[in-house]
Amino acid sequence: MALAGATRYCSGRMTTSQPLSALFAPLNWDPDLLPPLEMDGYLTGVLVTPELEIADWIADLWTAIPPVTDKARMQQALAAVLARFKAIEADLQKGWPGYQPSFCERGKKADHDRVRGWMKGFYKAMTIHPEYWTDIADDERTATFLGLIVGFIETDEQIEERDDADDIRDEHAELLPRAIVGMRSLALLHDGDANGLRSIQANKIGRNDPCPCGSGKKYKRCCAA
Prior knowledge:
The chain has helices spanning 36-47, 54-57, 71-93, 112-126, 130-138, 143-149, 165-191, 194-203. Helix content is 48%, strand content 0%. By secondary structure, it is mainly alpha-helical. The chain is globular, with a radius of gyration of 17 Å. It comes from Novosphingobium mathurense.
C-alpha cells in the first residue's frame, strides 16, 4: 500500500525537527514506570482512543506501583508522565508532517525494534477500549490503520512471514505518523471536541490531501465524509 506524498524517511521531510516528546530525556525516570519509548506509545494510544477517563489508564503506567507511603516518588513520577502526555498532545496538534512519534529518528528509516517497543505501549492502550478498535477494524475507511500496526505487534503465535515482510514494515512505519494524526482527529470527533479537531485540520490536512488514516483516499472522500 502506498500514499501519495509518502517519504523515504520516518521524519516525513528532512527539515522536520525532533518530536517535542523526544526532548524529555529519561533522566530520573522512575524504574517502575513503563520504559520511555513504550510509555510514549501508551500515551499516544490513550490520546487516539475516545471515551477514556484518567482512571481508566493511570494504573497501567506502571510495571509495579510504588508503595502508597512513598508519596513524593509517586508525585514525581506522575509529573514526568503528565509532561510527556502534554508534549505528545502538542505534537499531535501540529498535524502531519509536524507530528512525528518518538520511534522516529530524523532522516533515517524507522528501526523496527524501536517501533515494536513503541507499539507495545500503544497496543496496551487499545485494549482499554477494545469495542472502539473493533469498530475501527470493521469500517472500510479506517481498517487500513490496523493493517499498518499489526506487523509491529508482538504475539506468541508463530507466523510464517513473506520474504518482503521487512520492506512492508518500512513502508508502514513511514505511513504511521500520518495515520496516527488521523486517528487523533477521529477520537476528537468521536468525543465532540470541535476545537481540537479544527486545530489539527487547520494545520496540514486539506480536503484534497490523502486521508491521514492511511486509506489512500482523498480526505474529503474518507474521514471527512
